[in-house]
Amino acid sequence: MSQEALENLLHENRVFPPTAEFAAQANATGAMYDEAAQDRLGFWAEQARYLSWATDFTEVLDWSDAPFAKWFADGRLNVAYNCVDRHVDNGFGNQVAIRFEGEPGDRRDITYAELKDEVCKAANALTELGVTAGDRVAIYMPMIPEAIVAMLACARIGAAHSVVFAGFSAEALRSRIDDAQAVLVITADGQNRRGSAMALKPAVDEAVAETPSVRNVLVVRRTGSDVAWNADRDIWWHEFVEQQSTEHEPEAFDAEHPLFILYTSGTTGKPKGILHTSGGYLTQAAFTHRNVFDLKPDEDVYWCTADIGWVTGHSYIVYGPLANRVTQVVYEGTPDTPNKDRWWDIIERHKVTLFYTAPTAIRTFMKWGDELPKSHDLSSLRLLGSVGEPINPEAWMWYREVIGGDNCPIVDTWWQTETGAIMISPLPGVTGCKPGSAMGALPGIGMAVVDDHATPVGNGGGGYLVLTEPWPSMLRGIWGDPERFKETYWSRFPGMYFAGDGAKLDDDGAIWLLGRVDDVMNVSGHRISTTEVESALVSHEAVAEAAVVGAADETTGQGIVAFVILRGGLPEETAKGEQLVQDLRNHVAHEIGPIAKPRQIMVVPELPKTRSGKIMRRLLRDVAEHRDMGDVTTLADPTVMNLIATGLETSSGED
Ligand code: WTA
Question: 305, 387, 442: which to mutate for ligand 1, most atoms within 8 A of CB?
Fold first, then answer.
């Protein structure tokens, strides 16, 4: 973010205090902050009591083996029971849990009683396939109810799921299956995207050809497209799961029993398997969902537009909302199919009251124009949420005025795959909101903005965002790599969790997130590491060296810009061709997935490096954003910047 943009942000003086009307009915109270400040562990214990425990816990936090936390360690529970069965037991079996809408327009309402039957059948199916507690199951699925059923079935039998976003490539899927040693993959024949069927099964076939740990592939029929079939390994969901019994006894597991692994990009080429466990995770996911979204289970219709492939889908479609007995919309497709008002149409028809989406989407809709949302009745909405990246004040105001009819609190929620649940956000009905600010830490959360020496900066200062106290839904480690866990998050500022984000506190102490300070990019709210894209580029035969940066992008937050040096001896036509740039972009899409496709690739003769050989990304970012280059005196060869600037004119490959 440029200094000027930052100054403008910090002089944002519009504040929207809670309305008396909202405050009078809000779940959250100002007293929560005081209670948690006086007795943090007591506060979390109280939140944990919203869950149903098979065996009550006596200890709240064990931090003796820091940074490996244990929360509620001697308690036992079943996560799926908490998300499904107990609502049926409490007499809410007929309440609709999921209002599914497929992209082609097919609809399906699933009650809690029906969801329970589906989860039980799937749990029996997994057991019949030999999946047992402690195993890992990879899920590579579109946004259809079976994806949620699959996750809950794993939770029910104590197998950890590893959901891989269905937009990732076969290679990305393979490496994740392999790292977790998954025994089963659950997938679909395909998914509906932009009006046509996009295949998924071929990527699974390609991936499992090289993952001997996988014994079976369970396939949901969604699009009806033809698929290749390996009769020794592949099983149709509609044949195998459907015939199972709806009776299944949920077994209680330790609160620290693994619930899922979710891979996320770090600063190296190898994604990290972030491990979450059961009791603490569910406690904080449910607490935040209840209070940040003000859920009233008997009245609200909630819709989170995330995909289950990301952590937002885990915590705010599956676990938090279902634990709280939500009624929610699940939509399979893209926002522009069949028309660019599909989302507003969904909100109007389902009378959505609570809506959670990402700034990228909001900025895209701003570009598409006010007429589309204005042609729909969105008056059912009573609260709006934002997640995934900093939301600029213009987008925030547009969201408030055009979508929220000037009448909804906006909760800008900061959190990460690693934090498991929301950490920083206003509490609606309690906290005022400033356009573009996530305001402050939630009750029970210890947060600070510190300088290089780990000293808190105080109001008006900027620095690094850290978390100063363990929290219930914190990651319990990186799968198979305890050293990397300590090194990545706990070594920079001893005793504190370093989030990797820069932040500023304004004069009132409200927090402004400034984006990543490490080599992780945030493209449309998706984390992609620069190194991962660089590795993909150098795996192409034409590339000798690559450097990747995230450059500011009006819609996607950041766009991926790559600088590549080609290998010597390539035929001249190849080395110059537009075709090569296209090939490289497609190569990255093939290696990682279309979301990692560089916006721009510049073929350059040199890269700027310090004398110690480190690539100076800051300079490349300046080039990519067309800024003045500033200080280049630490460069080994300052003239390379001129060479690169020349390259910029000739070989960008935007489409
Ligand atoms: C960024 C997504 C500003 C941040 C839940 C963080 C945000 C990364 C916000 C985590 C927000 C998330 N304001 N930045 N409200 N929410 N981020 O793991 O850089 O996909 O470190 O989790 O997204 O991304 P992840």
Answer: 387
For residue 432, give the 3-state DSSP assignment. Answer: coil
Q: Answer yes or no: is pLDDT of 651 > 50.
A: no
Could you tell me which residues come within 8 angstroms of residue 146 by beta carbon, excluding any fewer than 6 positions away? 118, 188, 220, 237
| Domain-embedded: residue 584 | yes
Using alpha carbons, select from 566, 565, 550 the residue that is nearest to residue 599.
Answer: 550
Q: Cα(241) to centroid of ligand 1, in Å?
A: 36
The rounded distance, in Å, linking the Cα atoms of 510 and 11 is 12
User: Is the CA virtual torsion 375, 379, 384, 390 positive or negative?
Assistant: positive
d(CA 90, CA 82) in angstroms, rounded, equals: 11
Q: How far apart are CA 405 and CA 385, in angstroms?
A: 14
Is any ligand 1 atom within 6 A of the Cβ of residue 502?
Answer: no
| Cα separation, 525 vs 389, whole angstroms | 5
Same domain? 532 vs 623? yes
Residue 312, in any domain of the structure: no
Spatial distance between the Cα atoms of 160 and 276, rounded to a whole number of angstroms: 9
CB 560 within 8 A of CB 521: yes
pLDDT of residue 216: 98
CATH number at residue 492: 2.30.38.10
CA dihedral sign of residues 172, 174, 178, 184? positive
Neighbours of 228 (CB within 10 A): 8
> Which residue type does 44 have?
W
- pLDDT digit string, tens, across residues 304-350: 999 999 999 999 999 999 999 999 999 999 999 999 999 999 999 99
Quick one: 436 and 453 in the same domain?
yes
Q: Which two tokens stand for residue 376?
A: 């729909």
Collapsed DSSP state (helix, strand, coil) of residue 372 = helix
Residue 618: CB atoms within 10 A of its CB come to 12
**Could you tell me the pLDDT band of residue 410, with boundaries at 50, 70 and 90?**
very high
User: pLDDT tens digits, residue range 41-60?
Assistant: 999 999 999 999 999 999 99
Q: Which residue shows structure tokens 């079939």? A: 229
Cα 417 to middle of ligand 1, angstroms? 8
pTM of model > 0.85: yes
**Which residue's CA lies nearest to atom 15 of ligand 1?**
414
| 3 state SS of 116 | helix
The mean pLDDT value of the chain amounts to 93
Burial class (CB in 10 A: 0-12, 13-18, 19+), 179: buried
Name 34's Cβ contacts closer than 8 Å, sequence gap at least 6: none
Instruction: Please say whether the beta carbons of 652 and 623 come within 8 A.
Output: no
Cβ-proximal residues to 106 (8 Å cutoff; 6+ apart), any chain = none
* Contact 527 CB / ligand 1 (< 6 Å): yes
For residue 55, what are its two tokens? 């065996």
Task: Using alpha carbons, list the distances in angstroms from residue 376 to 303, 344, 405.
Answer: 17, 6, 12
Give the 3-state secondary structure of residue 558. Answer: strand
Find the mean pLDDT for residues 523-547: 91
Q: Are residues 623 and 540 in the same domain?
A: yes
Q: Is 499 in the pocket of ligand 1 (CB under 6 A)?
A: yes
The residue range of the domain holding 542 is 521-651
Is residue 491, in this structure, part of any structural domain at all?
yes
Q: Is there an atom of ligand 1 within 6 Å of 288 CB?
A: no
CA distance 284 to 470: 12
Nearest CA to ligand 1 atom 22: 416
Residue 603 lies in a domain: yes
Q: Which atom of ligand 1 is nearest to the CA of 516?
A: 19
Residue nearest to atom 7 of ligand 1 (CA): 389
- Distance between CA atoms of residues 245 and 263, nearest Å: 33
